[in-house]
Design a protein that fits this description.
- An eight-stranded parallel beta sheet has the order 1-8-7-6-5-4-3-2.
- Helix content is 35%, strand content 19%.
- Helix 7 links the parallel strand 7 and strand 8.
- Helix 2 packs parallel to helix 3 and helix 6 packs parallel to helix 7.
- The chain is globular, with a radius of gyration of 16 Å.
- The protein has one domain: Alpha-Beta Barrel (TIM Barrel).
- By secondary structure, it is an alpha/beta fold.
- It has nine helices and eight strands.
- The structure holds D-xylitol-5-phosphate and zinc ion.
Length: 220
């Protein structure tokens, strides 16, 4: 697994009145992935977009669609998101009755599998699946909204997860998501994250200079 840092801007902070051009701008600005936050107003107290929007965005870029499903139940939507053009499908274990079954549903669609841990969710929720998944998404905010404050207590969990992955030589990325800025991105990388999600920092800092903000996150 390449240990180069990847930047995955979250379009939750983009201008929803022009999502297509925002995605194209992110590609031009050097984004590695496009982080798409799907919320159902049930698993989290917010509603965003569904497969139909992703289907419309798909032809606009070749960039990896890093789809973060904050929905429950999740199983009956896996195929819709896969068909819409998701490349990585990440779900929350609390959103399914059978984590292994959800992993297999995503695998059967030939997509990469991610499991997301809320700030208070323990790594034991993912440990026994690390040989079957591609990514663990460590949430550094409570899921549901962009622009929240980074929760540094998740850095310990990130370090522990990195140790387990390295010791067992698992081929699993660690993605950190929530409140990432130009200072705490360094802490996140030191703790073992190799993919950084950012919404508000990328879209709001330096008068919204996407290229500059992505570069700073990558370099700091
Ligand atoms: C929150 C989402 C995050 C969020 C990140 O539930 O999963 O991806 O959009 O946005 P910032 O970087 O503003 O915290
Ligand atoms: Zn997210």
């Amino acid at each position: 697994m390449s240990n180069l840092i990847k930047i995955s801007p979250s379009i939750l902070s983009a201008d929803f009145s022009k999502l297509g051009s925002e995605v194209v701008s992110l590609e031009r600005a050097g984004a590695d992935y496009i982080h798409i936050d799907v919320m159902d107003g049930h698993f989290v107290p917010n509603l965003t977009i569904g497969p139909e929007v992703i289907k419309k965005l798909r032809p606009l870029t070749k960039k990896i669609f890093d789809v973060h499903l904050m929905i429950s139940p999740v199983d009956n939507f896996v195929k819709d998101f896969a068909d819409a053009g998701a490349d990585i499908i990440t779900f929350h274990p609390e959103a399914t009755k059978d984590t292994l079954n959800t992993i297999n549903l995503i695998r059967n669609e030939n997509k990469k599998v991610g499991i997301s841990l809320k700030p208070k969710s323990e790594i034991k929720l993912v440990e026994k699946y690390l040989d079957k998944i591609d990514l663990v998404l460590i949430m550094s905010v409570e899921p549901g909204f962009g622009g929240q404050k980074f929760m540094p207590e998740v850095l310990d969990k990130t370090k522990k997860l990195k140790e387990v992955i390295s010791k067992n030589n698992f081929n699993v990325d660690i993605e950190i998501d929530g409140g990432i800025n130009f200072e705490n991105c360094t802490l996140a990388k030191k703790a073992g994250a190799n993919i950084l999600v950012s919404g508000s920092t990328i879209f709001k800092e330096n008068k919204g200079d996407l290229k500059k903000n992505i570069e700073i996150l990558r370099k700091n």
